[in-house]
Structure prediction request, 318 residues.
Amino acid sequence: MSFSARVKEELSRHMDTARHCQIAETAAVLSMCGKVKISASDQFSIEIQTENVSVARKYFTLLGKTFNIKTDVSIRQGRRMSRGRTYAVAVSSHEEALKVLQATKLLDAQGEVRENLSLTSNLVVQNPCCRRAFIRGAFLAAGSISDPEKFYHLEIVCATQEKAGQIRELLASFQIEAKIVLRKRYYVVYLKEGDQIVDVLRLMDAPQALMEFENIRILKEMRGNVNRQVNCETANINKTVSAAVKQTEDIQYIRDTIGLEALPDNLQEIAKIRLARPDATLKELGEYLNPAVGKSGVNHRLRKLSAMAEELRQQAEA
Prediction:
């Protein structure tokens, strides 16, 4: 089971005790993956279709607990072997469908289907707890989250730009700044920051998924820190080795041209020690001198030798 499926499984088993929150979550599921049907005799029926059994189970439970109504559940197998099952949960009774639509504010006083989910004018999402429930229902119906081992990405796919704007507005009420992108013919509300995804999991009441996500984040951060430290140390080692090789080459050039005996005593001493100990660090080279010299002093002498070697090379080329 994918991480996204585990999150939805956990959310499907969470049931708010307050009826107004149950209505808000029902409204979200209906809004994101539901259909309202009107017959020739103006009879209403509602249905959701989903490929996720967790979504179907949660919607079925919400209708039973919140409205005390029975639903028709059907399962259809995809025509192609690669396609899975589609679960349909329908309310065929006009009176019961009308009850759900009116409670979720998806039907106005004139009997027209509406989806006005403004935070200021819609009672369904006015309370913070109801907004949390609505976001949970929207994610269940049309959301997904990537495996945090790979990368951080949470999204909710919306059929219209208006719905995407409503989801973004709801998230913004919790200081979560989501973005919207047009993908094919759908509007996708998405988050890519780990901290933001943690906040969404927390507000949707998914503690197990939140703990798993945070544990993976901690391990990834630790691995990243270790890799950065190793890379830094490797780079320093490579730099030290390259410098030692260059110093040895310069000293050998001086030896083969004018001879080390032509050098001042302090440079002659460090030159011989570097040739004898090509792998030694600057600190170790300084300890071999008599008297001992610090790293900066050793580096200063080696720089003088390199400058002298470069000068001899230029003279040879002239």
